[in-house]
Amino acid sequence: MNYQFNFAHFKPDDDLLVASRLALEDILEIAPSDAVPVGRLLRRRDGFEATVEIFSKAGYFVARAFETTPKHALEAVKSRIERKLRHWKRIRFIESDIWPEVAARRPIGESGPAADSGGRHEKQVH
């Protein structure tokens, strides 16, 4: 498939278009096999906000970054989502009795009473 970033409130140059397409290709290499990525880069008053969402049966992954240039925002969000995906890859086959937050379907890294939703778990968010 040909996934691409959506841009809002500015016109990206050719270099940014290529970089954003390559970023999504790199992200998909480590994402779940059924992943559908959604990338957005928008201009704000004082900088650029980049968001990448990954929708898959394995879960929902999201990362955001705010930087002063669109290229830096793209690089930062790519790094953040890749970190989350690598973490998911490391723990996806670990027994749930070793990782109770996985068994409880909590977002990875959250534990304790504040993270407990009283047994109500809709979808795992990474």
Helix share bin: 25-40%
Largest sheet, spatial ordering of strands: 1-2-3-4
Number of strands: 4
Structural class: alpha+beta
What characterizes the major β-sheet? 4 strands, mixed
Q: Could you tell me the radius of gyration in angstroms?
A: 16 Å
Task: List unreliable stretches of 5+ residues.
Answer: 109-122
The portion of residues forming beta strands comes to 25-35%
Word description of this protein:
The structure is a single chain. By secondary structure, this protein is α+β, with helices and mostly antiparallel strands. The chain has helices at residues 14-30, 70-91, 100-103, and strands at residues 5-8, 36-44, 47-56, 59-67. β2 and β3 (47-56) form a beta hairpin. The longest helix is centred in the middle third of the chain and has 22 residues, at 70-91. The chain starts with a strand and ends in a 23-residue tail after the last helix.
Question: How would you concisely characterize the structure shown here?
Answer:
This protein has helices at residues 14-30, 70-91, 100-103; strands at residues 5-8, 36-44, 47-56, 59-67. It is an alpha+beta fold.
Offer a few descriptive terms.
globular, alpha+beta, 126 residues, four-stranded mixed beta sheet
Write the layout of secondary structure elements.
Elements: E1 5-8, H1 14-30, E2 36-44, E3 47-56, E4 59-67, H2 70-91, H3 100-103
Helix pairs in contact: 1-2
